[in-house]
Design brief:
The structure is a homodimer.
Chain A lengths: L15 H5 L9 H4 L5 E2 L34 H4 L9 H14 L7 E6 L2 H12 L5 E5 L4 H10 L2 E5 L1 E2 L2 E2 L1 H9 L9 E4 L13 H13 L3 E5 L16 H6 L14 H4 L5 E6 L11 E6 H12 L7 H46 L3 E3 L7 E6 L3 H4 L4 H11 L2 E2 L1 E2 L17 E5 L5 H16 L6
Parallel strand pairs in A: 3-4, 7-8, 8-9
Antiparallel strand pairs in A: 2-10, 5-6, 9-10, 11-12, 12-15, 14-15
Amino acid sequence: MTVLNAPVDFSGYMTERAKRRQKSPLKSLIKYIFMPDMVSLGGGCSKSTSEDGVEEGDLLVLTREGQKESSVEPLDRLLQYGGGLGIKSMMDFFTQHMEQIHSPKYEGWSIVPSVGSTDALGKAIDLFANEGDPILVAEWTYPTAIETIHQIGLEFVTVQIDSEGMIPSSLDHVCTNWSGSSPLRLIYVIPTGQNPTGATMSLSRRTEFYKVCQKHDLIIIEDDPYYFLQFANIPVVDSVQETQQLFPQLPGIHNLVPSLLSLDTDGRVIRLDTFSKLLAPNLRYGWITAQFPLIEKIMFHNENSVQQPSGFTQGLSSKLLTECWGPSGFLEHVLFLQKEYLVRRNALVSSIQKHVGNMVSLTIPTSGMFVWLKINLSPSQLATPGIMDQIFESMVSHNVLLVPGCMFSPVSDNNLVKDEPYLRAAFSYTTLDQLEDSAIRLAAALSSFGLSK
Amino acid sequence: MTVLNAPVDFSGYMTERAKRRQKSPLKSLIKYIFMPDMVSLGGGCSKSTSEDGVEEGDLLVLTREGQKESSVEPLDRLLQYGGGLGIKSMMDFFTQHMEQIHSPKYEGWSIVPSVGSTDALGKAIDLFANEGDPILVAEWTYPTAIETIHQIGLEFVTVQIDSEGMIPSSLDHVCTNWSGSSPLRLIYVIPTGQNPTGATMSLSRRTEFYKVCQKHDLIIIEDDPYYFLQFANIPVVDSVQETQQLFPQLPGIHNLVPSLLSLDTDGRVIRLDTFSKLLAPNLRYGWITAQFPLIEKIMFHNENSVQQPSGFTQGLSSKLLTECWGPSGFLEHVLFLQKEYLVRRNALVSSIQKHVGNMVSLTIPTSGMFVWLKINLSPSQLATPGIMDQIFESMVSHNVLLVPGCMFSPVSDNNLVKDEPYLRAAFSYTTLDQLEDSAIRLAAALSSFGLSK
């Protein structure tokens, strides 16, 4: 049996805000409420609508107290106050899920639910960064993360990325040469199907990246919404039929690239998971995994902000995951998603190869929902101010919309990045026919710039 | 027709954080997505589980696209990303509701949903206060608000309260004599059924309070979860039957004390509403009403934190409020709650009057779910350090739990308040039998201190 290490103690790095996050004094009374024979006028619990029987039949079929055997909490419990954690059936699900999929390598990891990874990101940052402090991010990254970090007031420090994501030597270089007044402490990374580049870190890249983070004592915020949307090494083929024949090579849940959390022996990874790409974005339900002292602070932060995800959302998710699906149903659902997205990736990439050809360069994404295109502009075009505005207008006039690269830059002076020759294409939502159409239209939009296949 | 004023411009008071909250640049692309004939590879929307038909029948009866006429958004829409506002049917409901119930008195008020009033409080504070800034609060107030404000790092400045809530002359005195380095800008108030004192501000108290807030240019955070739990002037009577005969005097939704928002001509009130006491606490769904420039900043804050309440929660709430209930059903539900809480208030207060008598003093609450008891200790008992610990232990040994007053104090040095002779009794959740039992047990617990009825 493997003996696991205790995690590194990062409490000395915490913000004063984080240090103030403590158990509510009122919680010390809870033990009295549950004493036998105790009559409590202590709690401010309120009547919930479930108790006057309004929804039954009208709205919702979930479990009511004593109605039937179920691992899902009854409606009365789901709708009552519940602190910063959430319902037990889902906490058990998360624990088993993380053990099975990521098997963390240190003693004392823990989980807290979130209302989605954007809120989770803010809470992870709140642990360690004050306004004005720096954070390491990829040179192209997720706009909502950029906006969230910007609004909190951190300084972006960028790391170069390639087709495998953040480049460890670039990270090492940036950290080694850092001369800011606050130390580099936090790094934000999307390791799988990175938004917007689609890049997925290989295992060796992850290992090397983690070592550099250890060297510079960085705490890693691993934002991994696309983790299950992996396609392994399945090639791009032209037709849906050919793609379908490759389905048996899909990784399911067993042959996925290991997460950074699963390589983390120090407890320096704060991993953000979400149901957004797994069930539905507007569930507003995710979970955070890290060493307990950090998770506990986030739980206290939850108790003084969102409390916990909506009881309906938790109950419905629990019903789906623990009763309707179970482990085999979850695998089946992941495979369903992998098939859906693989078909779309192949449709888009093969259409681009066929119709757009050498007007762009791309790396075939092995995960996620994005293809990152570099437009092969001539040196003189690249030196033309406003060239990307022109290309955008050309796309609009050809009725095709891809997102210009500059939208993904954390650099605050837009003039420095607005003519970077990149476009992000998302293949998650458009129909298969539209995917091919979009490539044809993109080719037309670019050909007016003298580019050719 | 009344001409309404434009609100006062408070933008000069905003924090740098609030000023940074802006529309995401990516949102500028949305207009292109909706152009006719446009094929978009722009959005990062994902497949949602609703599209593979898993929940239908198993879990949830809501509306699916094209299924039938409904004002509630279809499931596909509910489960997709939707920005910082939320679904239209609920935004329409909130607007009509606020117009009907509060009828704001200035031009350009607006609404944004919240995931509950605790999160809303943090976001309202974030607009105007930095760490270290002061905030005015009642000398006894809601523990989760205390904890939230403490963790954010504000300094508490207390205002005295009586049986009608915050005392305007005390507020005026505190503001006039303020000598802190940052100006007093924010005041947090629970005007109806205050937690923990049960105090409800009368109309004249509200008017006077608002004038003092105007005088000192304070922005008012009106946290009003118990607004609909008003009992007007219905007296305490002994039996449930007698109470039932008084039900016709309940205010319903038409004879409620006006909110501070409804008196606000300047746009200086940020009103927090929630479904927690109206439908169920763990819905995690509320709404914030204030002048548009403040609401817009909170919407941007939502977009970079919680996004919006869970789609399930919004959809189920919309189904309930706009389809199942409608206006008459809402009134009926409010009356149901007022009846439930009135019966409980009368049961508890009459039991205390009968069994505890002059051992305590209390003001009969005209709203909410709390009774605030002052224990009539002798001067020498009041001068005994640890007296309230002894009373707490006596309560526990008599199997009755009320919350000691010190738990509701924002004063950080617990020694200064721990022997204040107050107890909060909540009558929201205990059964009627238990309410009488609790009074009998409390009497026994207190009688061992030489107190008598």
